[in-house]
Amino acid sequence: MEKELNEEVLLPTDTFASEIDAGLSANPKAISSRYFYDAEGDRLFQKIMQLDEYYLSRAEYAIFKEHKELLLQYFADQRTAFHLMEFGAGDGWKTKVLLRHFIEQHAKFDYRPIDISGNVLQELESSLKTELPSLQVQGMEGEYFEVLNQMQKTDGQRKVVLFLGSNIGNFRQHQAISFLSSLRASLNQGDMVLIGFDMKKDPHVIRNAYDDASGVTRDFNMNLLKRLNIELGANFDLTKFKHYQSYDPQSGECRSYLISLAEQEVTMQAIGVSYYFKKWEPIHVEISRKFDFETINELAASSGFGVVKNLQDTDEYFTDSLWVAT
């Protein structure tokens, strides 16, 4: 899971139910990882980020600590004002490293976190008001590209978009190119993006990050079934499913599944539909791709960006790649 955000996904119940129905009716079965994040999912993910095995958060935090001045030099571009925008900012733990430094250096910028959850934005704005009272903050509720398209009509200042935590890893290659091309279409030439990429490394390090010894990731994934029981009236018996994690070092794909331990039928009262599971049948719930520099360069070139700088932690586990819209 790459969601370095504390973002509760709030969708109309009919949309939620219809997407779950489509996923469980498919062959093979699959549910989008976006549905991990109810209140309990958020709590468990915060716990995951504190695990020794889960290196992603610490690696990106270290990059920001080490390179905050260099990033300001690129963002400000001869000290011109800029809008710092962040997709799914969550609690802002890592971003606050940059915000605090930029304020100390008297940079001319404002911070515009974008999220579909107004509640998450309110919590972030409240914490920033206390911790960084001089920061200009304008939370922007809505879908990412909808908000960016509205921003094209603003004052013409440079936009710098943060897409952190290797959330890009939740997309397959063609999906990532489509997403990034849409991002480019919402930006002006010279605007910048900073994208977090989890890099290919020792497969055991990656597996352990997604299948920790204390079982927090297992509980996080299984909470998806609890959410379906609570919100959609499903009757999943959690003792009849188990969490399974795999990693393919060739493709760089880390995959999460919930495996049915018995032949069984599950009913969802919200839509009056039942789903049959064979013994050992999986529900695919997440893909977390890992990257190399060749793939990063290909993504940038295919979506209308040029790579400006790649910044890594000392272990070379993680890369924040700075791109410019060409």
From TrEMBL:
InterPro entries: EgtD_Methyltrsf_superfamily, MeTrfase_dom, MeTrfase_EgtD-like, SAM-dependent_MTases_sf. Transmembrane segments: none annotated. Coiled coil: none annotated. Signal peptide: none annotated. SUPFAM superfamilies: S-adenosyl-L-methionine-dependent methyltransferases. It holds the Pfam family Methyltransf_33. Residues 17-323 form the Histidine-specific methyltransferase SAM-dependent domain. Keywords: Methyltransferase, Transferase. This is L-histidine N(Alpha)-methyltransferase. It comes from Imperialibacter roseus.
